[in-house]
Amino acid sequence: MANLEDKRAFVTWLIETITLKEKEAYWILNYLLNHDAILNRVHIVEKADKTPRGLIVSDNSETEEGLVLYKENHPFGDAQQIFHDIRMKYKEPLFLEVRFSGRDFNQQYQLVLEENPFLSSFDTISDEMFEKVLRDFEEKQYQEKLNCILDKLNHAIDSGNEEEFVYWSIEYQKEKNKSDD
């Protein structure tokens, strides 16, 4: 867990350095900065929308909205409503995600970044990576099926069973034709 001073230094740097998409994000971050009781309960994480109460703040380089609070997977984009929620529920944990260009290589960000306890293993895998793994799995499954059919075909040849040979030859051709589609 990041300590209060590191979080304060990061939020200060963020306010002074990054051009955020929504001006209201600055005054919410300033509010967090000036209230230690709240800042102590802020956890800077990835994928804050997967938490029970997650705030996402974005810079101008991002295509998503610039300021969104997620409460139990329901997004709220009204800055007044977000501020009111933070102020009234100051004793509850707040998970903050900050989206800005170069964050993966920013030392201050990496210093305060915590593991999101609400993510499953699958949430950390990108969609592209998931699709690649799925394609690789399907290809491996296909090759295994072909190998199984070839084993049965070879067994039919070795045993001289013409009926099995014809059956497994047809099955092999069917599978090969499926891959051509």
TrEMBL record:
Any one Pfam family match given in the protein's UniProt record, by short name? UPF0302
* Domain UPF0302 intervals: 6-109
Check the record and name the InterPro entries matching this protein.
UPF0302, UPF0302_N, UPF0302_N_sf
Top-level division of the source organism's lineage: Bacteria
Q: What is this protein called?
A: UPF0302 domain-containing protein
